[in-house]
Structure formats: structure tokens, C-alpha cells
Amino acid sequence: MRYSSPFMEPGLFGDIALLMGTESLTKEKDLEVIQKYLDTKDSRYFSVLYRRYSGKVYGKCIFLLKDEHLAKDAAQEIFLKIFLNLGKFGAQSKFSTWVYSITYNFCIDLLRRKKKMANIFSDEIERLTGLEEEVSDEALLTMEVNHLREVLENIPIGDKVILLMKYQDGLQIKEIAAVLNKTDSAIKMKIKRAKHKAQLVYKKLYPEI
Fold it and tell me: Is pTM, for the whole model, over 0.90?
């Protein structure tokens, strides 16, 4: 499902996104655009980054938060954080990874407060029968889109986030570990558990397949 960006409305970034004269920048790499913005403080450069990522950020917010108004406000706050902290981006990772890290952390904090959950990504070892059997990546990637979406809706939020990071955003183990402040080995185990849960839910929802 495609989500329309709410940022095209009048507002803090709505005006920036409507600025003209950025067409020639659309093919430049993120790092080049960022450097030009930092050198000139010309808001047109930030509008390029905004247009590249606003839809993706909003899509993640609404998929995780399940509330259009909450997702809209969250996405606005996330882009404000990106705007204010752009000078701190050290280019040690891809800009998209940095953006998604801010997005996930912001949404996770909201969910923790909303659900009053101390730790969505608990390190407690869960008892899952058959966990020793590795669920292949293909088992998830070959699911029909609607089936996969339904599966993700029926697993814990922490597992959903882990799978989105790994398979939708293409983050490496070390990148996910940095976002969640976990060790690489802990992330590998969480991915394994999340895949296993997803497989169990899939078999329960679609036993005839």
C-alpha cells in the first residue's frame, strides 16, 4: 500500500517541499546534497532530502503506530529532528540508515509510552518449539504481500520492527545492533526468533497453503 505524504500541506516542511529550483539536484547522491545544505544553509537542498524520504518515513510511522494523526505528527517530529541534527550526521552509515534509525527509535519510544512497555526488545530467552530449525529468508520473501502484511500484524511489535529493518530497509546486522543498542549476536538471535514466530503465524492463518 502506498501512503500519500502529509507534508505537502502548509506547515513547517510543507513550504520547504514546494520550493522550486531543486530539479537539477534530484540525481545527486544524499551525501552531496547534505554537504551543499551544510555549506550554504539553503533550504532547497533540505527539501530534496525531504522529498526523497518523507513518504517512506510516514509509511513506517503509520504501519507501526496504526493511527493516521499520530503517524502524521510523528513524521513531522522526525523530520524536525533530522533537520536540527543534520550537521551531526557523520556519514559513517548510509543517510537512509540514519533516517530510518531516527524513525524507528521515535516510534518505538511512542509505543513504549503508549503501551506502557518497559522493553519492547527484551533479551529474555523465549521458549519456542522448533527454534533450532532455521527459517529461510525465502520463506518470508516468497509470501504474498497481503499474507505477509497480515502476518506482521499478528506478531509482537519488536519482532515486526526487526523484520522490517532486515528485509524492508536492508539494514546489516551491525546497523540494527547500533539502532537498538544490542550486540550483533543478540540481533542474530532476535531475527531468528522473529522469523520463527512469523512462520508459525503464517501456518496458523493460512493452513491450507
Answer: no
